[in-house]
């Protein structure tokens, strides 16, 4: 079945460091891919999305490129801030139904 | 828009008691989702509705759990009787199939349930 695999956390970085959070997926067809972010004490919110191969989603300095050949959607940011500390979820929408398939989440801790 | 509204934000109850969680989706949205989040199991989809009709409840853990959506602006998730292992954060989310945001689920702030 469809699945999403994320790198385990927590990921701890210093402020202004480069961030990569890996996400790979298994799906039939051509799913849409997403990154959601959950700040402490809050619900999840969409960070960025890509709906077809080679699309690049971007928002708030974060980017991710839909790579069909490697079935990946890695999240990157060039210079992280303390305020980026949160849990990041990779997800896919397989089109076969209306459920999102979620990764386990990766906790990001940014130290000043 | 006020976003997805959930109540209560926190609930502490004793084992065996009935618990009812409430959700008001964003006006005009036609899908509603109930999730449960724990450290051990992560984010789990419990059930989702389309136009107030339950579509998939395969994630509901046991018969102790039930969910209803009597109208487009209100849904409940009930646990009866509650058990300590039900302690978790429960999220409600809504979405709209049509339009540019069709992929996006809008989450409420969650209800933190503690069963002692």
3D architecture notes:
The complex is a heterodimer of chains A (112) and B (116). Chain A has 112 residues and is mainly beta. Chain A contains no helices and twelve strands. Classes of the chains: A mainly beta (112), B mainly beta (116). Chains A and B meet through strand 6 of A and strand 5 and strand 10 of B.
Helix percentage range of chain A: under 10%
Overall average residue pLDDT of chain A: 94
Q: Order of SSEs of chain B, N→C?
A: EEEEEEEEEEE
Number of strands of chain A: 12
Determine the structural class of chain A based on helices, strands and strand pairing. Answer: mainly beta
Number of helices of chain B: 0
Structural class of chain B: mainly beta
Radius of gyration of chain B from the CA trace?
A: 14 Å
Order of helices and strands of chain A: EEEEEEEEEEEE
Termini distance of chain B? 36 Å
Major β-sheet annotation of chain A:
6 strands, mixed
Residues in helix, % of chain B? under 10%
Globular, elongated, flat, extended or rod-shaped: what is the shape of chain B? globular
Question: Mind summarizing the main beta sheet of chain B?
Answer: 7 strands, mixed
Identify low-pLDDT runs of chain B.
none
């Amino acid at each position: 079945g469809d699945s999403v695999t994320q790198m385990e956390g927590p990921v701890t970085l210093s402020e202004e460091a480069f961030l990569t959070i890996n996400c790979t997926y298994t799906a039939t067809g051509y799913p849409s891919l997403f990154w959601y972010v959950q700040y402490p004490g809050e619900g999840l919110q969409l960070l960025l999305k890509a709906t077809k191969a080679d699309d690049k989603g971007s928002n708030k300095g974060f980017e991710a490129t839909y790579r069909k050949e490697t079935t990946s959607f890695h999240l990157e940011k060039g210079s992280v801030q303390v305020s980026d500390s949160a849990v990041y979820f990779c997800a896919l929408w397989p089109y076969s139904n209306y459920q999102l398939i979620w990764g386990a989440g990766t906790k990001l801790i940014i130290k000043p | 828009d006020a976003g997805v509204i959930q109540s209560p934000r926190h609930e502490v109850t004793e084992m065996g008691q009935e618990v009812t969680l409430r959700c008001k989706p964003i006006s005009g949205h036609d899908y509603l989702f109930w999730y449960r989040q724990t450290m051990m199991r992560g984010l789990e989809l419990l059930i989702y509705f389309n136009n107030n009709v339950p579509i998939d409840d395969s994630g509901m853990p046991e018969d102790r759990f039930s969910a209803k959506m009597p109208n487009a602006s209100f849904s409940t998730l009930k646990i009866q009787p509650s058990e300590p292992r039900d302690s978790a954060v429960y999220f409600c989310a809504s979405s709209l199939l049509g339009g540019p945001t069709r992929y996006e689920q809008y989450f409420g702030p969650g209800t933190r349930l503690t069963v002692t």
